[in-house]
Structure formats: C-alpha cells, structure tokens
Amino acid sequence: MNVYNEIKEIAELNARIEELTKKVNEKIDADGIDFTTAVFVKGCVEKDGHLYTELGNKLDRDGLVDDDYYCDQSQGYIEDDFYGHLYFATDEKGTFVRVYFNV
C-alpha cells in the first residue's frame, strides 16, 4: 500500500484550519463564513472608505464594516438570504484575505 505524504499533509492542514476556525469564532460572529475559500488578493487600494483593485474596480458594496472588513454582499432570490465576499486586511500593504460567506 502506498503512503502519500501529501495526503497526510492535507489532513494535517485541514485539522489546523479547524483549530484556527474555532479561534476566529471566539473573536467574531463567523457564522456562514467558509474559510476553505480564503485567498489572498494583492494590489488592493483603500480609497474614500471603499476597497478597489489596482485597476480601479470596486471590490466592496457598502464600504468598511465595523472598522474590521469590507463586504461585497448580494441578496438571494427569496430575499432572506445573503451571500458574497468579505475582505480582511493583512499586515502587508494592499493585501487582503477574501472569504466567501452565505447566510
């Protein structure tokens, strides 16, 4: 039987993601956030309370929320569900973490 080190490493990373998700849930209401979709978005520009790509495309809908993150939210068909992306700043200028949410 083959032992794939990469598969073991994926399992270890998934366990680490689970641990980190629990820590985030202690700090914010992260209900509906899918942290497995987290990706870096580089070259972002904050201007007039909104977040833009370096080419000037707007990434958020309503600006900075709770002085914590930018939100690009849409409303679902039944008008009682919401989905979109949240953009959290990193310590690297112009780099944000984008995650998908659905509530």
Strand content: 35-45%
Question: What's the mean pLDDT score?
Answer: 92
* Number of H- or I-type helical stretches: 1
Distance between the termini: 43 Å
Structural class: alpha+beta
- For this entry, what is the oligomeric state of its chains? single chain
Break the fold down into its secondary structure elements and pairings:
Blueprint: H1 5-27, E1 33-41, E2 45-47, E3 50-52, E4 64-65, E5 69-75, E6 82-89, E7 96-102
Antiparallel strand pairs: 1-7, 2-3, 4-5, 5-6, 6-7
Write up this protein.
By secondary structure, this protein is an alpha+beta fold. It has one helix and seven strands, in the order αβββββββ. The mean pLDDT is 92. Strands 1-7-6-5-4 form a five-stranded antiparallel β-sheet, with no helix packed on it. Strands 2-3 form a two-stranded antiparallel ribbon.
Quick rundown:
With 103 residues, the chain is of the alpha+beta class. The chain has one helix at residues 5-27, and strands spanning 33-41, 45-47, 50-52, 64-65, 69-75, 82-89, 96-102.
Features:
two-stranded antiparallel ribbon; five-stranded antiparallel beta sheet; alpha+beta; 103 residues
